[in-house]
Amino acid sequence: MEELLRKSAKEQSEAVRNKEVSAIELTKASLDRIKSIDDKLGAFNSLTEEIALNTAKKVDEKLAKGEELPLLAGVPLALKDNMNLIGSKTTASSKILENFVSPYNATVTEKLLTNLVPIVGKANLDEFAMGSSNENSAFKKVHNPWNLNKVPGGSSGGSAAAVASCESALALGSDTGGSIRLPASFCGIVGMKPTYGIVSRYGLIAFASSLDQIGPFARTVEDAAMLLEVIAGYDKHDSTSLNRPVENYTAHLNNDIKGKKVGVIKELMGEGLSDDVRKAIENAIETYKSLGAEIVEISLPNIKYSIGIYYILATAECSSNLARFDGVKYGHRTENAQNLLEMYCKTRAEGFGDEVKRRIMLGTYALSSGYYDAYYKKAQQMRRLVTEDFVKAFKQADILVSATCPNTAFDLGSKANDPLAMYLTDIATISANLAGIPGMSVPAGFDKDGMPIGLQILAPQLGEAALFNFGYKFEQEHDYYKKQPKI
Amino acid sequence: MESLRDKYEVVIGLEVHAQLKTKSKIFAPDSTEFGSEQNTHISAITLGMPGVLPVLNKEVVNMGILTGLALNCTIPPRCKFDRKQYFYPDLPKGYQISQYDEPICVNGYLEIKGKKIGITRAHLEEDAGKLVHAGAAGLAGSSYSLVDLNRAGTPLLEIVSEPDMRSSEEARMYMEELRNIVRYIGVCDGNLEEGSMRCDANISIMPKGSKEFGTRAEIKNVNSFSALQRAIEYEIDRQIEIVEEGGKVVQETRLWDDNARETRSMRGKEDAHDYRYFPEPDLMPLEISREWVENIRKTMPELPSQKRARYMGLGLSEYDASVIVEQMPLAIFFDKVLELGATPKIAVNFIMGEIAAYLKEEKLEITDTKLSPENLAELIQLIEKAVISNNIGKQIIIDMMKDGEKASTIVEKKGLSQITDESAIKEIVKKVVEANAQQVEAYKNGKTQLFGFFVGQVMKETKGRANPQTVNALLKEILG
Amino acid sequence: MITIKDVEHVAKLARLELTEEEKEKFTGQLGAVLEYVNQMNEVDTSNVEPMAHAIDFSNVMREDEVYYEQTKEELMANAPYEENGFFRVPKIN
Lengths: 487, 480, 93
What we know:
Number of domains of chain B: 3
Low-confidence stretches of chain B: none
Oligomer: heterotrimer
CATH class of the domain at 4-40 in chain C: Mainly Alpha
Distance between the termini of chain C: 33 Å
Strand content of chain B: 15-25%
Distance between the termini of chain B: 63 Å
Helix content of chain B: 40-55%
Structural class of chain C: alpha+beta
Mean pLDDT of chain C: 92
Number of helices of chain C: 3
Low-confidence stretches of chain C: none
Strand content of chain C: 5-15%
Mean pLDDT of chain B: 93
Largest sheet of chain C: 2 strands, antiparallel
Shape of chain C: flat
């Protein structure tokens, strides 16, 4: 059964469909594997066995009746623990929601349930999705399956580790400044963030509303495309949801890319890339050349401001989004308050971790009286400049590429000691959220220590088809995606 | 204080929150129904659960536009929502979704007795929940509080006036007319006591003739029109006293206490709020086309000012017209009666006369009685056709309100039709004259006011049914 | 320059009780924001429209219909302190 767990989601769904294995057997196998290895990884905050087995049962019943199965029915999936699922705790890896039980389903959850995808558990994350190494979870750290002493990346570290270690074939994560792409890169799997508005945010615990998007993790590009098809679509519960039909994302994976233009982002190829990463990206560029694409150099002159912009916008929005955690209606409430003010201040001090407090303080400051024009409005204006750089770039190239991260996964506790590398990581991924464009990280090789390297592909808004096409073509030219950590 | 008042001018601006009468809330689908058991009209969205998102109710926008048009506002082509941030237990998300710098309506006015009071802006926002304080009469001294979020998310239109009012009377008239308008266009119940309309007053004083406004104080917790007037009067005196003694009026929020009849400072109870406004990222902006505005304009019902003018055009006095318009159920009733062809003058007499008196005594609205517009119209018709006299009409209207019977039915049942037969009346007149020889003597000797006595006696004999004109004529003939 | 008083003010606005250590730490960190802002001020944005949303569209609205997707019990289940169907909070000063 472990062999089947190591196969792609597509293969697993076919095995179920062809009755080579029952959905119950497959889901049980996934749950067993999690129970046997997850204390090494820390990828899951909780398991949702009953829900998963109920779903699997429905799949088997449908099969017994000879009915058609929906896409990805029966394939186990890990749900990042900032997405609501009735009957599960949704904690955002925070003490302030440690015992919060979801009273409603996120829209993506509804879609998974309708598609009979068994949700095996809630995946660990950096608290409230704030962090890039999954060391900020209030409960436990997540370990990289390729090397347990290293970080998996964040904030969707649990989701990435679950998929990389074959605990589940699929996972959902959320990406506000790179939180899907970075862990995908560190864990050697595919992770992608769609165009803003393609996937409903209803039920995703908000971090930065104008930047957050939910996206798929998988071990192959095709699997990721299928999962996106399941979760994408217009949602009347989300006013920022795009009102357009769901595309068939798997339809054009193998399209010829001859004559297409691949743009290399100049500002992300400079100092700070480790040798192994640089080599891997250069090889990737060569791969595209060999497939007939034309390589162009692209400059995004305002990309360096991404961090400052993000610092202000994301923290401002999150300081507002987290104001609802006040101990009144749900969540943790302090036992030490004599009056309302104390209740607020102590509840939030007790419930939030350091990184969350830091961002709330920064965001509150950025919005405070007298600073709006100079900070928030300025950042929104700069955001438009960054976005316009991309618009111009996509007139010269069909997709853009860069390293997802200039390094591979660093050691737990080391806080990536290279500030320049951290900086390059940030601006590579953040800029896509600012512009609302889709981005994907695909496995692009390994460093001399065997740690995965990720290639980031970016496409214009609504350019998912191109993203999957270029991702698939690259993936199929190499065996990187076939390698799995020994765990 | 009276002579001191002459030295100063008072400047008043009013901020009114009107609850819009939609079925569901502004950003959530739970009901806006009032008066239900605590926390029964709530949703995940209303409670600000982690992960929820707001979705705008189209009808709220339509009502906002309609109100803006009724207040002669411009509806800008674009508006948007912003977050207004502060912590309070009745505010589940820790912010209120409101409109800061791009509101739905700007630059309007309403008229009171020919004077235009400017309206700076009107904007949409969501209401907060309710707090019940336990262990004391109110907030001060209570040992804990209970939160009911039924009201949280109810749509509000905040209407801000220019500081154009110069007396408590003008402020009151503004409020009354605003209330009339929102009721007539059907967007708000306009009930200060119930809280469907709330009023805060900004009051300042300046030396008479000055061009520079003084520092203003904001007065909250005004729960009736008369309380508004009282609060303003109190505040004027308070501010004059401060200035006269050489002090400076402090810009602050004060609470009106209608029992103690004074305003009290709220300073120190709450820090100056830093609302940290920023555009609401979860909602998209509104582009309001001119076509949309015009389509709404076409649905505009008759406004109070138009109704008053129409009534006066029909011969009503300004006073009668105003009184009827002031009570919307009455005006709606009156309009129906007119539609059915009744003579306005007669209808007004009944409505302002017997009906008004009955309603006042029984403390009822006209819709609480069993009188239908059709029945009143029929009654009036009977009078116009001289089937019954006006006096009989006055007699039976009370029964009509109590029992809902048609006038014609009552007339037939009780045999109340008008006696117009001259000879029959003559008989009775003769009889009365003969029976009251003393009064006849007195009348002939100059006590002409006794004529009414004779009329009364004839009416008593005929149980009010005799045609008054005929009675008068015959009496004159016989008495000489 | 950001001072401890500034930090205390922001902490009050954010309803966060901070230790003295945390106040010191944040004094430095809030200052870092200023650096990023200074950097952004290198660029003239006087004619640039602020970008509030990733994608441009407008007029997203729903019909005025009442419906309930959760019951009162489901919604009150996570209440830290419920009394008689209310949420109970300590005295408001």
